[in-house]
Amino acid sequence: MRLVSLRQVRPGMKLGRTVFTEDGKVLLGSGMVLTERLISGLVRSQIDSIYIDDPRTEGIEVEDVIRPQTRQIAVETIEKTFRQITNSNKLARKISLIEMGLHFQRAFSSILDDLLQNKQMIGHLATISSHSPSMYHHSVNVAVLATAVGMSLGYNRQRLMELGIGAMLHDIGKLHLPEEMLKKQDRWSEEEREIAKQHTMHGFNLLRKQHDISLLSAHVCLQHHERLDGSGYPQGLHGKQIHEYAQIVGIADIYDSLTSPRPWRKRYMPQDALEFLLGSGGHLFEHTLVNAFIKHIAVFPIGSSVVLNTGEVGVVSRVDPDYSHRPTVRIIKDGRGNDVHHPFDLDLKTNIKLFIVGFEDDELFRMSDVTGSNPA
């Protein structure tokens, strides 16, 4: 199995992993043979990449740390709740708010149970990407990433629930933004960005009124854009004024935003996003929280096609969490760009003269440095 940009997909290729719509429904199931019509459907759904199966990558499995059905339920819970909150029917909206906490407790409990059962996979969480740009999938990704950090910090189940539910709901205040802003395909203007900053307060005011949602979860919504040096919003808090949950979600939010595509840009490479976060330690976020986050991320995700310093091209087949920058690579092209008849695995931990210089597929990634205090 390997990851390819949609521009490289051709009819006859076999889909390696299920593709979901932005609202959590199955768009295409794993194992389907792709046709022109199906590929066109992926383009219309703004999917920028998919996993395919081919004989050269046989045995390379890209597993999500949460089950597909867990992700589907979580995304559908967020989508349904968000839709009901904006419902013009006041009675329907009131009922949905009463039941909100229960729905999110159930959805996040499934995420947490999956993570607790798959602790051995938490060392390469870059494989969680759903390749959908939707806010619903982003919220689930942020919840998974944030919870992994909470687990590494030794949080008990109650604290993990508070953190995870806050992460799932961190962007709920965006429901109060003008519809034309949410649907806009271009980057927001400065004026629109100022309007968007109000989403943290909108979300907090909504969540703090829910009797079965922790006030700490509500503070995640309020503070996830606050920064240690006071440069964040909405209150310009400093240091310990910012709750640890909010800092963790802020880190996860930036990482998933940078490594996901946007209508106006390609995704950033994982190592670029990680370098940005490393540079933010001590002034945007606590060093200990940044380090706790980074140790769970694979710099080169399983299934990604990479280029070695020899010019050879390979697919990452295994990742050792302790040496994520030196994975095992399945070589599929030689240094001249010719297909290798018998692909073979190279463990870069033992082949110390070899190293990865980049990704093969320049259609997937934005090839520039991540700069600015809010590059996402």
- What's the CATH topology label of the largest domain? Hypothetical protein af1432
CATH level-4 homologous superfamily of the largest domain: Hypothetical protein af1432
Report the CATH C-level class of the largest domain.
Mainly Alpha
Spatially, the strands of the biggest sheet line up as: 10-9-8-7-11
Radius of gyration: 21 Å
Order of helices and strands: EEEEHEHHHHHHHHHEHHEEEEEE
- Total strands: the figure is 12
Question: Which of globular, elongated, flat, extended, rod-shaped describes the shape?
Answer: globular
Number of helices: 12
SS class: alpha+beta
Enzyme class: hydrolase
Keywords: Hydrolase
Protein name: HD-GYP domain-containing protein
InterPro entries: HD/PDEase_dom, HD_GYP_dom, HDIG_dom
Characterization of the model:
With 376 residues, the chain is an alpha+beta fold. It folds into 3 domains: 2-57, Alpha-Beta Complex (Molybdopterin biosynthesis moea protein, domain 2); 68-294, Hypothetical protein af1432 (Orthogonal Bundle); 305-366. It contains 12 helices and 12 strands. The chain has helices at 36-44, 68-85, 90-117, 135-152, 157-168, 179-182, 190-196, 199-207, 215-223, 244-258, 270-280, 287-294; strands at 2-5, 14-15, 19-20, 26-28, 49-53, 267-268, 305-308, 313-318, 328-333, 339-347, 356-359, 365-366. It has a 5-stranded antiparallel beta sheet with strand order 10-9-8-7-11, with no helix packed on it. Strands 1-5-2 form a 3-stranded antiparallel beta sheet, with no helix packed on it. A hairpin with a 5-residue loop joins strand 9 and strand 10 (339-347).
